């Protein structure tokens, strides 16, 4: 090989660096310009002999082997460089690249080559390289990378065993606390949950090297993480540079990142049970259904209860507590996400229609068959006949429970599962203390989905004061940060009205209904002609006997009939059951009776008897909202001799002198013309949509309605 005497000339100048530089440049020229790999390698071998302590020569030879994809030779040169130049900062970049290839899950060809080079190094050197890289990360204040490298060292060369891993877990939590993350779904918690903890729990005798306090802390942090991940509407993506490995090699937690958060939590719970030697039978297999999971817990709790009578141990083991707690949160979130899919279900929810839990306002009447005789009607040929009611006029047409659908079965299973777990977690002082402490530590009062279930739980149990407090808190939260959309606010208001109604707080009930009606008006869609309240499912409520709760669709057109029924019942209690009621209240009641006319006719006849007895009736809203032909006939009849010649003032207050004339049922000619004209106009409106009329009444007469209940 010709050198043209150039190195001799440069060496004469006494510059070793110049010699190495010449060899590097010459080798690069052979490779780039002449594509002569053999000449290139020959120059580098010569240079290594002449300059054995020159890093630049060694590094160029290493780069040549990388380009040639020669793993064995590249590993050999890397080993030599690491031994001869351990403190040379120019090597650090390559070592860091190797460590990143080991930490990442990249399928890049270069990363794969670096992994292969690393694997060809002696085991001792492999560890020293990772420890060196961990120190570099520490110097650069890259805590996350340092922690991941320490985990990798433990996974590959763990000699200190569980003690070192437990220190690593606590270090992660200490750094997370120091960094002050507000969201638990941060890179440090993810590293702990997805990578470190599964590896730690798979180690033998971890429980012997860790205190029960540490185990509890790690489990609580893990539960908090997965609960957050499972219940946030839009799961957070990993931040830039936060590359969690998809599989933790060689440990039982390798399935974590592939499952849903609830399934992952079950996996971790199983690992903790095995590590801590808990009775793992309480914990259902990951992916088990809600009902199946509760059956497993219940079976083992009953078995424990039988054994405890013999052994004297009353409190079920920790596994029962944690299995029930996880199942409670999972079931209550599932329930809330079905009841309010837009708010809690997120884009992954297969449910679209929102629902609300409300009490049957007249459950005792639901089982009775009401048949009554309509009043005598005068027909065209002046012939009178009695028209009897058939079963269609039964009060049961107000709420029509459907058959058990897949949706209702899913809702009731989630609700009952959550309720069963709640009872178990509050069955003894030890569980109550731990349960309360965890909810406080996790700030569960800020979980709107859990508060939603809590409100329905209290409502179901008939604990009205607490339910009202919970619902009012949710309304206040909505006012503070607009956490609720209008439909959710409407649902809460109707639930509050329902509770107030059961407590005979009529003014509060009507106020809440009227607020809900205002929200409905923005999205009002006419309901079906039957005006039935269709139930998706029913629950037998606790508390006072005879309570029946229905799961109703929360669309305005479906809830309007319930709201009208609620206000109607309030008016009945205020007007028909009290002697001090005024004509305005009685008039409002008559307007509302039109909605469920066939079943309300007996109560209407009672109102007519009261009007006839007092001899007068003043209600200036009559012509605005009364369109029912039977009611119009009855009031026209009240003006006749047979009807009692009742003094009626039904025209708007701006009208002039009232004039009468026959409209129906024999009112004498010569009657006041204004009254006759007004009643004739009302007859023309008898086909008006009653829902629209009642909706307009509730909107326009809001202040007057509230005034009726001012002293209630």
Automatic annotation (TrEMBL):
Stretches assigned to coiled coil: none
Span list, region Disordered: 359-392
UniProt keyword terms in alphabetical order: Nucleus
One term under GO cellular component: integrator complex
InterPro entries: Int_cplx_su10
Composition bias type Basic residues, residue spans: 365-378
Localization, UniProt: Nucleus
Top-level division of the source organism's lineage: Eukaryota
Segments crossing the lipid bilayer: none
Chain intervals with Basic and acidic residues compositional bias: 379-389
PANTHER family attached to this UniProt entry: INTEGRATOR COMPLEX SUBUNIT 10
Name under which the protein is recorded: Integrator complex subunit 10
């Amino acid at each position: 090989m010709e050198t043209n005497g150039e190195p001799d000339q440069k060496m004469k100048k006494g510059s070793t660096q110049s010699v190495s530089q010449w060899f590097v440049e010459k080798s690069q020229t052979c490779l780039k310009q002449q594509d002569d790999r053999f000449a290139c390698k020959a120059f580098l071998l010569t240079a290594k002999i002449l300059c054995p302590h020159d890093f630049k020569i060694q590094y160029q030879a290493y780069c040549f082997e990388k380009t040639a994809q020669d793993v064995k030779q590249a590993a050999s040169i890397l080993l030599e460089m690491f031994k001869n130049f351990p403190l040379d900062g120019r090597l650090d970049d390559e070592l860091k690249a190797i460590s990143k290839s080991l930490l990442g899950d990249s399928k890049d060809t270069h990363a794969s080559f670096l992994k292969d080079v690393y694997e060809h190094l002696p085991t001792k050197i492999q560890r020293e390289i990772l420890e060196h890289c961990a120190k570099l990360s520490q110097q650069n204040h890259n805590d996350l990378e340092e922690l991941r490298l320490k985990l990798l060292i433990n996974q590959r060369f763990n000699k200190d065993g569980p003690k070192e891993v437990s220190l690593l877990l606590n270090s992660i939590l200490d750094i997370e606390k120091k960094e002050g993350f507000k969201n638990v779904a941060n890179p440090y918690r993810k590293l702990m949950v997805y990578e470190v903890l599964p590896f730690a729990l798979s180690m033998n005798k971890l429980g012997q090297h860790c205190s029960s306090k540490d185990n509890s802390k790690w489990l609580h942090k893990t539960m908090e993480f997965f609960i957050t991940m499972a219940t946030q509407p839009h799961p957070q993506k990993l931040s830039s540079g936060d590359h969690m490995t998809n599989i933790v090699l060689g440990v039982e937690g390798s399935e974590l990142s592939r499952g849903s958060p609830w399934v992952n939590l079950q996996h971790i719970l199983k690992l903790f049970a095995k590590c801590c030697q808990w009775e793992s039978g309480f914990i259902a297999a990951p992916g088990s259904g809600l009902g199946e999971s509760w059956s497993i817990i219940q079976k083992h709790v009953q078995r424990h209860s039988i054994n405890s009578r013999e052994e004297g141990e009353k409190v079920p083991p920790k596994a029962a507590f944690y299995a029930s707690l996880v199942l409670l949160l999972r079931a209550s979130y599932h329930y809330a996400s079905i009841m309010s899919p837009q708010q809690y279900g997120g884009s992954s929810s297969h449910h679209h229609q929102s629902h609300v839990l409300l009490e049957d306002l007249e459950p005792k009447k639901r089982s009775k068959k009401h048949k009554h005789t309509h009043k005598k009607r005068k027909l065209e040929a002046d012939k009178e006949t009695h028209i009897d009611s058939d079963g269609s006029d039964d009060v049961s047409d107000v709420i029509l429970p459907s058959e058990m659908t897949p949706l209702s079965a899913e809702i009731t299973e989630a609700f009952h599962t959550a309720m069963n777990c709640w009872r178990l977690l509050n069955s003894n002082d030890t569980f109550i203390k731990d349960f309360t402490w965890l909810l406080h530590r996790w700030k569960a009062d800020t979980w709107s989905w859990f508060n939603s279930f809590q409100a329905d739980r209290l409502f179901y149990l008939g604990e009205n004061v607490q339910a009202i407090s919970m619902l009012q808190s949710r309304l206040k939260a909505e006012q503070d940060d607009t956490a609720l959309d209008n439909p959710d606010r409407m649902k809460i208001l109707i639930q509050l009205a329902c509770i107030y109604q059961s407590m005979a707080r009529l003014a509060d009930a009507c106020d809440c209904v009227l607020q809900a009606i205002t929200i409905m008006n923005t999205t009002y869609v006419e309901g079906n002609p039957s005006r039935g309240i269709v139930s998706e499912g029913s629950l037998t409520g606790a508390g006072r006997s005879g309570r029946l709760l229905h799961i109703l669709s929360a669309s305005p057109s479906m809830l309007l009939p319930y709201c009208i029924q609620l206000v109607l019942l309030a008016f009945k209690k205020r007007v028909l059951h009290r002697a001090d009621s005024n004509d305005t209240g009685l008039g409002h009641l008559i307007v509302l009776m039109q909605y469920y006319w066939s079943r309300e006719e007996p109560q209407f006849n009672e109102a007519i008897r009261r009007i006839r007895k007092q001899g007068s009736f003043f209600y200036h809203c009559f012509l605005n909202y009364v369109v029912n032909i039977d009611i119009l006939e009855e009031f026209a009849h009240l003006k006749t001799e047979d009807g009692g010649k009742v003094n009626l003032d039904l025209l708007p207050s701006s009208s002039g002198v009232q004039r009468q004339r026959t409209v129906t049922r024999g009112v004498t000619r010569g009657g006041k013309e204004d009254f006759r004209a007004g009643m004739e106009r009302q007859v023309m409106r008898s086909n008006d949509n009653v829902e629209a009329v009642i909706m307009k009444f509730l909107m326009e007469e809001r202040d007057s309605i509230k005034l009726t209940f001012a002293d209630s």
